[in-house]
User: Fold this.
Amino acid sequence: MQGNQRTRLGLSKAQRDNMAAYDALPEPLRVWLAQARLPWSPASAKRAWRKALWRNFGRTKAALAEMDRLEEERLAQDALTQQRAAEGLRPPVDRSGR
Assistant:
């Protein structure tokens, strides 16, 4: 098993850039992203976060609530969610407690 513990393969430039971009995000946004139900890129999350902050006059809690609403809207547009609603089933469960 020793060979499996090491690799000479590095991260691609895109992966390194995404990691650096994620690390540069504000802490409240990083915490929110860690619990997000959708896979957000650092760039799109930052764009949405800046708009949410602007709309909410810099209030972090209100901006986080707007990010939650935005994610819910995107989930509602998902084909599986729409199919479940058409069949009379509940939408997927949010296990993050939000």
Notes: The chain has five helices and no strands.
